[in-house]
Amino acid sequence: MGYLESLALTRGARLVVTDSGGVQREAYWLGVPCITVRPETEWTETVALGANVLVAPGDAPATLERAAAAALAPGHRASWDRTAYGAGDAAARIVEATARLVGAAAPAGR
Question: What is the mean pLDDT of the chain?
Fold first, then answer.
């Protein structure tokens, strides 16, 4: 499947189980709980915020089952801070900062 199809499926899911690094962050941004079947992740913020749970590939199936039950518990979906990677306002902040710099550098009387 293509990227947009993958995003649509992730957005509509109640839970994502993956071993993909990119899917972990996309699930986080979309507010979908994620279980990552890996012993570690490069996206440690998603784990620290409770959006993602690591389950090592060699763990007992019951470990995955418990993680899934917790992730599907009422109120868990998107109960974490979704601004760990920014609030989505970077472009506006860049424009404001640029305007301030240009305004401060402009000769007097302009």
Answer: 89
